[in-house]
Amino acid sequence: MKKIKSLLLFFLFIFYFSFVFVSCASRNVYSADSLTLDAAIDGTVSYFASRIPSGAKVALVPFDAPSGLLSDYVFEELWKRFEDSGKFVMVDRRNLERIEAEIKHQYETGRVDDAHMVSITKQYGAEILVHGQINVIGKEYRITVYATDVEKASSNQRAFIVKPDSRLASLLNASADAVVERAVRAMAGSVSQKTVVAVGRISYADTQTVSNLSAWLKNSIITGTRKHRDKLQVAGESESADFAVASLGMTADAANSGIQAVIIGNFSPLDSDAEVLLQLVSAGGNRMVLASERFIITAAELERRKLSLLPVKGSGVIGKAEFEAKQKAIDPYSGKNNKWVFTITPDVLDGIYRDGSYMSMLVYSERDCYFRIIHIDVNGNSQIIYPVSANDNNFIRAGQTRRIPDNTRYRMGPPFGEEIILAAAYERPFSLTMEADDRILMTPSVTARLSYTILPMRNEE
């Protein structure tokens, strides 16, 4: 009996400690040496203050971090502490903006490395470059800080494990309005004088597809620019339409519209979140990227605002499988094997039309040719919309831009969602019935396509 009792106590002992272990593992148990974000920043400054020579000219650039607001916070707090130490000469912030802009540009072109970053910093008279990154490690974060001597091209490094707290959570889970406003502020800081901008297409991944997220981003960008009117002025709808015609339709010099730069971008799924890239691009012939901002809109924010990455379809959202099948079906009209330049573009810059608005499109060809246009509606139904009668002139001369339809415009209305226009052109004329020309129509000389999205008149994004 004593043996049985001993065994029973032993199993109870094992069960109790197993329960305690599992309970602890299910909680947010962090590394023994983890710190709060502010403590890690204090530790960073204390560490480098004893290793960087007194009087050194220090340049500090924003960190690579999971959120732009987190990067900004770490930058500002490090700057303040380095400056308050009284040991260093901090590089003028205007020069820091130039260093940051150049480094960002090099990142976009894929040419930046540590040696290049040091070279960029050295041009502005800095002796020490402080930079770093913040990475996710399980439920914690690792902040790694480098202090690089630009003359010797040698670095000191210090890393801390950061545990989540209320401050870190607020920086990582900022509202969508806050992250867009930060991006607009950064773009405003990249221009030296007041610049007239238009908001162009902000699309899903590498497609032309726009959604209610696109429309919401456009509205938020316009709202954000009002806080920076000394740097950014958003063009009116009529000016943007003129610019769309000029730049996309190739009918005139885009500079004649008065627009100096365009904000364009794309978004992609990142787990349940949306990763957004916005670029401020010069409207001049070189199309130079003046600023580039990347940020995350959390799944909670997308849900709260009823925003979707994929386009609406009626009262819902198109399914991913249907969307991908649609993209695959129109791939033959991508223009990959075109024999000459042939384009078809909408008369709006952002690809978004509201219920009751009107739409036309512009066809341009580098050579003489005969063309036809196919419309695919929200439900995937297709029909030829030009030419539809013997009176329709589907011949276009080299270098000419044609507006279709000729003497009217298409009125937009439900069902809401993405619609697609496919265009194909041939070197020989063809009949409207197509039976006698099937062979020719199966192998067009050039193709082009466009997509646009119809949204309800009421602003639901």
Compact overview of the structure:
Helix content is 33%, strand content 30%. The protein has 461 residues and is α+β, with helices and mostly antiparallel strands. The protein folds into 3 domains: 37-172, ABC-type transport auxiliary lipoprotein component (Rossmann fold, 3-Layer(aba) Sandwich), CATH 3.40.50; 176-307, ABC-type transport auxiliary lipoprotein component (Rossmann fold, 3-Layer(aba) Sandwich); 325-455, Immunoglobulin-like (Sandwich), CATH 2.60.40.2550.
Textual characterization of the structure:
By secondary structure, the chain is α+β, with helices and mostly antiparallel strands. Helix content is 33%, strand content 30%. The protein has twelve helices and 23 strands. Strands 14, 17, 18, 19, 22 and 23 form a six-stranded mixed sheet that branches. Helix 2 (37-49) crosses helix 3 and helix 7 crosses helix 8. The protein is elongated and about 85 Å long.
